What does this fold into?
Amino acid sequence: MTGEGSEGGTVGYFWISWYSDPAWGFELNFPYWWTGVRCSDERHTICAAVIAETEVVAKRLIRQAYDDPLNEIEWRFCERREGPPFNDRFQRADWMQWPPTPDPASE
It folds into this structure.
């Protein structure tokens, strides 16, 4: 996926992960998965795939998904990736909003 974004960056896929307090409500329509719990403070480990222009924009999309976007989010990583995020471990669910993935067999 490529294209020029409104903030001057190239639109692409980002794989992003952070720790989240389970009491914080959020609604994210991009694909995300609860991948574990940090033992020291019981914060959930969340991984998500987002479509954004830059790392800053990707993190902003996550913040905006929270009921209170001012929560102190502890980021684990945010990396630009090639292609869709789905695989055997991170499977697509019906509620996830993601552009259709071209079928190589149809080309």
About this structure: Helices lie at 55-65. The chain has one helix and four strands. Residues 55-65 form the longest helix (11 residues).
